[in-house]
Amino acid sequence: MAPLPGAELVQRPLQLYRYLLRCCRQLPTKGIQEHYKHAVRQSFRVHSDEDNPERIQQIIKRAIEDADWVMNKYKKHS
C-alpha cells in the first residue's frame, strides 16, 4: 500500500520529489514534517547527478517504499 494515491504514477525524479513532499504534509507534527522534508531535499540533492535510468527507477522504488514505511510508522502512533 502506498502512502498517498499516485505513487504508481511517479516515473521521474521531480515527480518523486513532489510526491514525497506531499507525504510529509500528512505527518502528525510540524517538527516531524520538517525533519522528513529536510531528508527529502538532501537526498534529492545527493542523487541529482544520477543519469542511469535503471538506477533512477531503483531510487524511486526505494523512496516510495521508505515513504510507505514512515507513513505507516506514524499512523500506528497517532
Automatic annotation (TrEMBL):
InterPro entries in alphabetical order: Complex1_LYR_dom, Complex1_LYR_LYRM9, Complex_I_LYR
Annotated CDD domains: Complex1_LYR_LYRM9
Q: Which residues belong to any copy of the Complex 1 LYR protein domain?
A: 11-68
Database matches in PANTHER family: LYR MOTIF-CONTAINING PROTEIN 9
Protein family: Belongs to the complex I LYR family. LYRM9 subfamily.
Q: What is this protein called?
A: LYR motif-containing protein 9
Specify the species.
Dipodomys ordii (Ord's kangaroo rat)
